[in-house]
């Protein structure tokens, strides 16, 4: 179960004491407050707090106008204009704070996005739980032959069973030794800050992660992409569903221009113009490298 009994009790208590407010609220996001969305085998994402909505983006863009001075249609058109022309500052007026439980190796990818405020569970102060991410058999894959940082075909048969057995046995053995080292039963016990170095990268950690909408969109554009590693992409997908309910107009523009769009180089645009004019263009005549040409073909189908 992703949620411990303590977490569930905390969530139930928070949801049972709603607080009136004069600030703007987003009905779609209110339903996500304090509700944990399970991810992977032991992880979750839950919204702790948020600020702003679609109207806040428009109000910041117009500055001199108050809420309600423009129609919803005008607001959506403005948001799409801002997204289309990369005017990012108005999106920074919205923020969200998430509580995330995730494997350490996913956290190390995630923390590369340095435009957020993070506070992680301290393994110097507290003892980590015996919880490890073990992939489903279908998610065990060989190294990709075309992408040095990706996976290829799924492992099968005895090899898949052996890999799963190694992952499970090694994780449990490392945790057994971790518990033995920090134990003060008949010994001094190794400091937690030192004992944690023996824990595997698939153990779960937790953090609070606060980010503005502009930088969240940047995170989602990279991590909700089909080429992102599966284990971080499922977290991004869960967050996408929350953001869609929170700021539907902004998310719609993001989905259209960023997730569903593509950025083309000047060289690629020239190739498209030649193709539309009936000219034959090949990788050799395009001026692109083999990798760039392969990506270009993927964009234009």
UniProtKB/TrEMBL annotation:
Source domain of life: Bacteria
Cofactor binding annotation: Binds 4 FAD per tetramer. Each FAD binding site is formed by three monomers.
CDD domains to which the protein is assigned, alphabetical: ThyX
Keyword Mitochondrion attributed: no
Region described as Disordered: spans on this chain: 1-28
Chain intervals with Basic and acidic residues compositional bias: 7-16
Keywords: FAD, Flavoprotein, Methyltransferase, NADP, Nucleotide biosynthesis, Transferase
Physiological role: Catalyzes the reductive methylation of 2'-deoxyuridine-5'-monophosphate (dUMP) to 2'-deoxythymidine-5'-monophosphate (dTMP) while utilizing 5,10-methylenetetrahydrofolate (mTHF) as the methyl donor, and NADPH and FADH(2) as the reductant.
Family: Belongs to the thymidylate synthase ThyX family.
Name of the molecule in the record: Flavin-dependent thymidylate synthase
Organism: Roseobacter cerasinus
Phylogenetic classification of the source organism: Bacteria, Pseudomonadati, Pseudomonadota, Alphaproteobacteria, Rhodobacterales
């Amino acid at each position: 179960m992703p949620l411990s009994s303590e977490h569930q009790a905390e969530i139930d208590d928070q949801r049972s004491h709603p607080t009136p407010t004069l600030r703007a609220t987003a009905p779609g996001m209110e339903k996500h407050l304090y509700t944990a969305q399970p991810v992977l085998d032991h992880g979750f994402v839950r919204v702790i707090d948020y600020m702003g909505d679609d109207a806040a983006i428009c109000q910041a863009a117009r500055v001199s106008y108050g809420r309600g001075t423009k129609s919803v249609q005008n607001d959506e058109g403005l948001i799409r204009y801002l997204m289309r022309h990369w005017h990012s500052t108005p999106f920074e007026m919205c923020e969200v704070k998430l509580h995330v439980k995730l494997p350490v190796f996913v956290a190390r990818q995630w923390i590369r996005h340095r435009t957020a405020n993070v506070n992680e569970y301290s393994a110097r102060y507290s003892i980590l739980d015996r919880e490890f991410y073990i992939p489903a058999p279908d998610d065990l894959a060989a190294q990709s032959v075309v992408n040095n940082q990706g996976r290829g075909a799924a492992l099968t048969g005895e090899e898949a069973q052996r890999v799963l057995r190694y992952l499970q046995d090694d994780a449990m053995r490392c945790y057994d030794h971790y518990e033995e080292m920090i134990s003060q039963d008949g010994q001094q016990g190794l400091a937690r800050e030192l004992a944690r170095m023996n824990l595997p990268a698939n153990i779960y950690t937790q953090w609070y992660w606060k980010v503005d909408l502009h930088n969240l969109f940047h995170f989602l554009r990279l991590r909700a992409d089909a080429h992102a590693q599966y284990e971080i992409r499922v977290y991004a997908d869960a967050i996408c569903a929350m953001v869609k309910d929170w700021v539907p107009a902004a998310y719609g523009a993001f989905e259209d221009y960023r997730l569903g769009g593509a950025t083309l180089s000047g060289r690629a645009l020239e190739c498209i113009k030649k193709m539309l004019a009936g000219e034959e263009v090949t990788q050799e005549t395009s001026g692109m490298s083999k990798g760039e040409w392969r990506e270009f073909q993927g964009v234009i189908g």
